[in-house]
Each structure stands twice: as C-alpha cells, then as structure tokens.
Amino acid sequence: MSTFERYRDWLADPRFQFTGQPLARELSVSRERGLETFYAPFDHVNSKATIAICGITPGLQQALNALNEARRHILQGASDAEALEAAKVHASFSGRMRPNLVGMLDHIGVQKLLGIETCNQLFGSHQHLAHFTSALRNPVFLNGANYSGAPAMLGFETQRAQISQHLATEISSLGRQCVFVPLGGKVSEVFRWLEGQGVVDPKQVLHGLPHPSPASAERIKYFLGLKAKEALSVKTNGPSLDNAKARLIEQIKDFNRR
Fold first, then answer.
1. CA 163, 186, 179, 137 torsion: positive or negative?
2. Which of 15, 65, 233, 234 keeps 20 to 30 A from 174, CA to CA?
3. What is the rounded distance in angstroms from the CA atom of residue 173 to the CA atom of residue 169?
C-alpha cells in the first residue's frame, strides 16, 4: 500500500477537516523533539524533468492547497496518479513564494537554459520540464508553526529518514540530465550531505539561490538588483550574495556550453 493509499479515505471524505494543530491528527506521521510531520499529497515525481527545484518543506498553506486539490480531483473521478500530479503542481511554491522564485530563476538565466521565455511557464505550459520537491517531502512543523530548517534537519532521525527515503530516491530517479536547485542555505546543507554520500553529482547542483520566502524579502530584492548595497540591513550579507549570484550565472553558462 502506498502512502497516498493509506490516507486516501480521509482525503476523499468531504466531511473530514484537514486543519487541526496545525493539521488533523489523523494525518500525523511522526514526532521528534518538537517537530511533527504530517502527510500531504506531494508524492508525485516527474521523472522526465530537466530541473528540480527543492525547498525546505511544504508550509501549512501549501499543505492545505495540496490536500484540497487532491480531494477536488478524487471527487471528480480522477485516478490517484492524476490527483497526485494535480496536487503537486497546484501547491508547489504557491502563494507569495512563487513570484519571488520565478524572478530569481529568470534573473540568473535558468529560463534560457531550459529554452523557455520565463520560469513562470514551469507552473503552466512547461510544467513537464520541472520537478518540484522539498528536502522534507511531508510538511514538518516546529511546535505547531511552519518549520524553517532550524534546528538543522540532519540533527533529527525522523528527518534524516525523510531525506533518505524520499529526496534521495527522487534524485536517483531523475538521473544525471537533471539540474537541481536547492533553495536557501538549509537545503544546500542537505544537498552537500547527499553529495558526500554519492547520491548526487555536485556539478548538477546550483547552490546559492536565496529561499523565496517573504521572510527573505531583503535578500531577494538585493539578489535581483532592486536594493542598493548601502541600504542593506546588518542581517543581509551583500558580498556573499554577490559571490553566490556570480557563481550561479557562470555555472549556467557552463551548462549552456555543454
């Protein structure tokens, strides 16, 4: 029985409420030292993708979006595979994160690498090119709030298990033609751990993109050239972002030359 099948009856019941503390207890997967993991339908893997974009873990809004979209398709008679694919595309990096993500990807030239006009097309007409995923596939919450990657994911047995069982397996299925984009330093830590284990070739990984969360607004604006260095707060390291962006642009040029 797949994970989706285990929870399918709850998803298919329109009387079942997904919300709880923060999600319904019936969807709880594991608990460890203040971290609680819940199921949401982010299982779909686009094994033909040429780019994989990896966040930390789905937040509450993304989890609810996926659950509701899967339910909508199930009640309309869709197959499990169709419901999972629709839920994944609909909910991945939804909300205010999506325009931030698209802006940064376009800024460093990812759209040219993929042969499209803008990376916004990855969420529509060219979704077949992209696989959207997270270091932690199932949504994780710290004391009931969205988990930002601190304390470190790799310090928790339950989360190392998620990474090994889900993310590492996804990477292997995507193969050597795929480019991986970890979003933010916390996800880069996970990818460097997987690189050390031989799961992924470091040459396939675009390290250095800020996380697209609204909480990173200043870093994103500076990365996009929309805020001057002298106007940055002490929390934002301008030179570090400059170096990361330069490396990313050069790495994409190298991909284009292959």
1. positive
2. 65
3. 6
Annotated domain spans of the chain: 3-257
Residue 34: which region, alpha, beta or left (left: phi > 0; alpha: psi -120 to 50)? left
CA dist 185 → 116, 176, 237 (Å): 27, 23, 13
The architecture CATH gives domain 3-257? 3-Layer(aba) Sandwich (3.40)
Determine if the pTM surpasses 0.85.
yes
Q: Which of 31, 56, 25, 42 is nearest to 184 (CA)?
A: 56
158: tokens are 């339950």
111-129 tens-digit pLDDT: 999 999 999 999 999 999 9
Residue-wise over 110-143: b if at least 16 C-beta within 10 A, else e? bbebbebeebbbbbeebbebbbbbbbbbbbbbee
Predicted pLDDT at 226: 97
pLDDT in tens, 56-82: 999 999 999 999 999 999 999 999 999
HSE toward the beta carbon, residue 234, CA cutoff 13 A: 0
Q: Which residues contact 164 (CB under 8 A, 6 or more apart)?
A: none
Q: Which residue has the tokens 């880069």?
A: 188
Q: Nearest CA to 110 among 208, 12, 4? A: 208
- State the angle between helix axes of 80-91 and 3-12 in degrees (0 to 180), rounded to the nearest 10: 80
**DSSP assignment, residue 209?**
P
pLDDT of residue 95: 80
CB-neighbour burial class of residue 36 (10 A; exposed 0-12, middle 13-18, buried 19+):
buried
CA 126 to chain centroid: 17
